[in-house]
Amino acid sequence: MLMRSCVALCRAHGDAEQARVICYNLLLKGPWVLNVVARALSAAWPNLLASPGPVARAMQAIVNLKVVPRSKEHVSALSELATSFLLAVRKSPRVTLLRSGAAGTTGEDELSAEAWELVFALQLLCAQLGWNWTHNSFIRELIWPLLAKWGKQQDGSLGGNIHVTDPSVATLLRLVGKLGILGLSLCSNNGVKNILEVLVKMLQKTSTEVVSHGVQQAAAHSVADLSPASPLLAVKALHDWAESQTASSSLTSTSVPPGLQARISELDDLCSECFEHSSSTP
Asked: Which positions fall inside the Little elongation complex subunit 1 C-terminal domain (predicted)?
């Protein structure tokens, strides 16, 4: 009832974007709220999701799929859409990195709007498909191999015509951070810690090689996203990376963006508070 009232109120004010945000945030909780969203849309704004873009397509697919959540048919349909979005991350010319001179100081704005649309659409589909599928079938079987190919490109050991661009890599890294947050919300700390360890190794690699600033910042943001899984590991990795950026800034115009620096400082404060609390506990 509340959901329907919220959507109806948004429609009365002509605010379709806010209504979609409400639906997205509810669907992000998993398939168990699907009926609530579907009934609210049917009663208050039936054509709300009839708009272009990956996020709207993902929501349409979820709401219109008349099968049992997490059933074979459910997984098959949504995983196929997720795979198509992942292909778009690799192939779409609109998945880009903004020029660091124009947006590099904002950190998060390094990704184009199209790239973020794909990240949020994939985050939603993975929330519906569950953590086991996300971790085992999506991250391990699809994302890690793409990042491994990019790593081989960097050291010149990848043959053939396969090419993974820096904008695609930055988008994948931010996506992994968002998906890891999903795992943390489901108390899957061990799996997320494994992901964090992979990201830390990537961040260390980017700080010692000639890697675009957008990729480095994306890796750093994702390490910060997953820091609750192992705070000390994340903080050390971020500090090491920040020091490498400061050292190179005398030769280039790049240092740690303010947004990332604020996240590192916030993690420092949290770790200090935890240490003080543990020290004072008898």
From this structure: 75-265
**DSSP conformation letters of 13-75:** TT-HHHHHHHHHHHHTT-GGGHHHHHHHHHHH-TTTT-S-SHHHHHHHHHHH--S-TTSHHHH
Please tell me the distance from the alpha carbon of residue 149 to that of residue 154, in angstroms, as a whole number: 9
> What per-residue confidence (pLDDT) applies to 130?
93
b/e sequence 206-244, b meaning 16+ C-beta within 10 Å: bbeeebbbbbbbbbbbbbbbbbbbbeebbbebbeebbeb
Q: DSSP 3-state assignment of 111?
A: strand
Say whether 85 sits in a helix, a strand or coil. helix
Tens of pLDDT, residues 240-269:
999 888 776 555 555 788 888 999 999 998
Q: CA dist 107 to 78, 200, 207, Å?
A: 31, 18, 16
Question: Among the ranges 164-173, 183-192, 249-258, 260-269, which has the highest mean pLDDT value?
Answer: 164-173
Alpha-carbon distance 123 to 120, whole Å? 5
Spell out the domain ranges in the chain.
1-52, 85-280
Q: Provide the pLDDT confidence category of residue 108 given band limits of 50, 70 and 90.
A: very low
Length of the chain: 282
- What is the chain's Cα-based Rg? 20
pTM, two decimal places:
0.90
User: How far is residue 268's CA from residue 32's CA, in Å, rounded to a whole number?
Assistant: 37
